[in-house]
Amino acid sequence: MKKGKQVCNLIAKVNKKKLDKTLWERAKIYEEEPQTFSPCKLFTKLPLLHMLLNCIALNFTNSLVFFFLSFNVTRWFGNPFLNQTLSGLVELVGCIVAIPAASYFGRRTINVFCLAICGSLLIVNEVLKVAFVGQLWVQTAEVVINLVAKLAASPSFNLLFLYVAELFPTSLRSTASGLANTGSRLASVISPLMLTIPIHLQPAITASVGVLALLVSVLAYFCPETKGMSMLTSVEEAVAFYKDGIVATDVEDFNNNEVEWSPAIQKEKEAEINEEDEENESHEIILIKNF
């Protein structure tokens, strides 16, 4: 860990930045206390299991809406080749704006907003067909509405890989992401099969997908926001984050005295910081000479 500190401090100095010394507190815990991890904690810890089920539902619904719209392009009114081109273009736009939108609005907000828009538009589509049977403008409106729904579905669908990873601690992140992704894979299998359902039942299927999207958008609203937070590194941090929405190792929270550090860290914090001040300066001089 000391060598890591030296290299990081040198990089920070070259870039004229200053690292907050409290960033190393979490690393010190793992250095001094051996950690044991098991994927079974995802199922034995109720908050983790609850979050995992939420993520599976989010993955399933986002993927179902996305693939349902994608596979139905050939059934839209007008030239199928033009519709495919427009569908690809709006998907590209959605992918481009996904990361900037998530950085500005937040991951949870994007999920809630996009699912609510998709669900509402799918329902509106079917209501228009029933209210204005046989009118040409309704067919054109259906294409436009589906394209807008596809535009809204793309950012939410692509950001889930990031959002799910940020919701789980390091030791369980890969396992949780893989399990949550089973929802997406299940939706990708179901979506093509929905096209084989008799045509007179298709309006009910579309409306059902819309209602599901609206319901899951409410579920997404109650998930925590991960924008700007430190990555979770332990199960305890994750459980506390699900409850309070605060990561105990966030430097800003520490500086503002908004969180309480563990007794072991609190006891040694001041002595370690003073010791690091002396060590870092001498090591930085040696490293610069070596480089």
Question: Which helices and strands, and how do they pair?
Answer:
Elements: H1 2-14, H2 25-32, H3 41-44, H4 46-71, H5 80-105, H6 107-131, H7 136-166, H8 173-194, H9 202-221, H10 235-244, H11 251-255, H12 263-290
Tell me how many strands there are. 0
Helical residues, percent: over 70%
Distance between the termini: 20 Å
For the sheet with most strands, the description reads: none
β-strand amount: under 5%
Write down the overall geometry: elongated
Mean pLDDT: 81
Counted by DSSP, the helix tally is 12
Class by SSE composition = mainly alpha
Task: Please explain how this structure is put together.
This protein has helices at residues 2-14, 25-32, 41-44, 46-71, 80-105, 107-131, 136-166, 173-194, 202-221, 235-244, 251-255, 263-290. The chain has twelve helices and no strands. α4 (46-71) runs parallel beside α8 (173-194) and α4 runs antiparallel to α9 (202-221). The longest helix has 31 residues, at 136-166. It is 75% helix and 0% strand. By secondary structure, the protein is mainly α.
Quick summary:
With 291 residues, the protein is mainly alpha-helical. It has twelve helices and no strands.
Provide key terms for this protein.
75% helix, 12 helices, mainly alpha, single chain, 291 residues
